[in-house]
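sry for the spam today, last one i promise. struct tokens for design, 103 residues
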């Protein structure tokens, strides 16, 4: 991201010519990424995207406290593979049924 900012400061195109895809499996084991909620919200315009894999929403909440909702909100796609956690089931099924999104 710093390189992109440097290019912009020099008056260059801020979009990367080669797309960058960050695939982060077991995100909770990586540790907290500083300003992740902000980076996630702005990196698409630089041709950078992220795939985050977590076991449950509680992992994200424990890492990012109040910013976890912003992080979830900045994710255009959510894939739910199953859970026995009540909060996860309420989040995903409540969200899907309310919007009637079926895949």
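last one done:
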């Amino acid at each position: 991201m710093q390189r992109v900012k440097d290019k912009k400061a020099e008056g260059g195109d801020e979009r990367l010519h080669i797309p960058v895809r960050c695939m982060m499996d077991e995100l909770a084991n990586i540790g907290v990424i500083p300003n992740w909620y902000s980076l996630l919200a702005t990196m698409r315009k630089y041709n950078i995207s992220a795939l985050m894999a977590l076991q449950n929403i509680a992992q994200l909440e424990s890492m990012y406290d109040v910013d976890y909702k912003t992080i979830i909100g900045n994710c255009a796609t959510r894939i739910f593979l199953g859970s026995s956690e009540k909060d996860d089931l309420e989040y995903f099924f409540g969200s899907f049924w309310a919007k009637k999104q079926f895949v």
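Residues 1 and 39 are 8 Å apart (CA to CA). ok im logging off now
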